[in-house]
Design a protein that fits this description.
Oligomer: single chain
Low-confidence stretches: none
Helix content: 25-40%
CATH superfamily of the largest domain: NAD(P)-binding Rossmann-like Domain
CATH architecture of the largest domain: 3-Layer(aba) Sandwich
CATH class of the largest domain: Alpha Beta
Number of helices: 9
Radius of gyration: 21 Å
Structural class: alpha/beta
Mean pLDDT: 94
Number of strands: 12
Number of domains: 2
Strand content: 5-15%
Shape: elongated
Length: 320
């Protein structure tokens, strides 16, 4: 039997090698930044996030398994005809939700200020502090990542409100659930606003001056989805003018964040370099490999691909 040619650029070599059936698949492993035109010419399956400019070289590509949850840039016209694309939704919920819980508690308990105080050898308490217990948390984007965060907030005593695209099913970890049209009204109630949205026409710029004016002066904003969801300059103004209490951002409109951007020096904004996800944790690696291996078999046997991307919406195809 002729083996199916696979190129894996997802940096999960060890886990993947333990799971893949080498009697069926001929797998080549390369780093993303080392991929060449020649590597792509004859492969049938690609695992990982390829440079978009090289996709046109994948003449025989029939299935692309992305190693990221976002898939809005996967346009049908840049792929070989008939190529199926799947994203990695379900991979990052644990890792990113732990980052979100950590940053939520950091902001509520002023821990970011104490780091700066330690650098100055300054013994000084910062008030007021807040608690997740009894707080209202608004999760904007209640997919895998948002729901894992919601579960943890709920377990710590918060009331959790979700915003999601499909309202036919409401997860138990959400006390209330609405669609994006209700955002402005819900902001009035939230102590924490957590964004875990993909990039789309509907989500671009949804947090700008009007929305910051709706938020409580004591509320915090967290963003782990896409930087395009926030008008960064409006956010800077809102925090400087104490319209909201602060923000923790892991994603930005432009990355890397320019060194001279004023946001670096705003005391109540915490900046991290898009590090909440990626394949950094063992559990994240394992979850991705499980999805990739399952989809290899789904593809080979003509079954439904898990997390298949709908090119019209940029999201995965919706199933209950």
């Amino acid at each position: 039997m002729k083996k199916i040619k696979v190129l894996n650029i997802a940096n999960v070599d060890d886990y993947f090698k333990d799971k893949v059936d080498e009697s069926v698949y001929e797998v080549k492993y390369k780093k993303r930044n080392e991929v060449t035109k020649e590597d792509l010419e004859n492969i049938e399956i690609l695992i990982g996030n390829p440079p978009l400019e090289l996709l046109k070289e994948c003449k025989n590509l029939r299935f692309l398994q992305l190693s990221r949850a976002g898939s809005d840039d996967m346009k049908e016209e840049i792929l070989p005809k008939g190529c199926i694309v799947a994203n990695a939704s379900g991979t990052y919920g644990i890792g990113i939700s732990e980052y979100m819980i950590g940053t939520t508690l950091m902001m509520m308990r002023n821990l970011h200020h104490y780091i700066r105080h330690q650098e100055k050898h300054l013994w000084k308490r910062v008030q007021p502090i807040n608690s997740l217990y009894g707080a209202t948390v608004l999760v904007v984007g209640a997919g895998d990542i948002g729901l894992e965060y919601a579960k943890r907030c709920k377990a710590m005593g918060a009331t959790v409100i979700g915003i999601k695209r499909h309202l036919d099913y409401i997860p138990e970890c959400l006390d209330e659930c609405y669609d994006l049209k209700s955002l402005d009204q819900l902001l009035l109630r939230a102590d924490v606003v957590a964004l875990s949205l993909p990039n789309s026409a509907d989500t671009t710029g949804i947090m700008s001056r009007k929305q910051f004016e709706q938020m409580k002066e004591t509320a915090f904003l967290i963003n782990v989805g896409r930087g395009t969801a926030i008008n960064t300059e409006d956010l800077c103004d809102a925090v400087i003018n104490k319209e909201i209490a602060g923000a923790c951002l892991d994603v930005f409109e432009v990355e890397p964040l320019p060194e001279n951007h004023r946001i670096w020096d705003i005391e109540n904004i915490v900046v991290t370099p898009h590090c909440s996800g990626n394949l950094n944790l063992d559990i994240t690696n394992k979850k991705f490999v499980e999805i990739a291996i399952e989809n290899l078999e789904n593809y080979r046997n003509g079954r439904t691909i898990k997390n298949e991307v709908d090119f019209k919406t940029g999201y995965r195809k919706y199933t209950r």
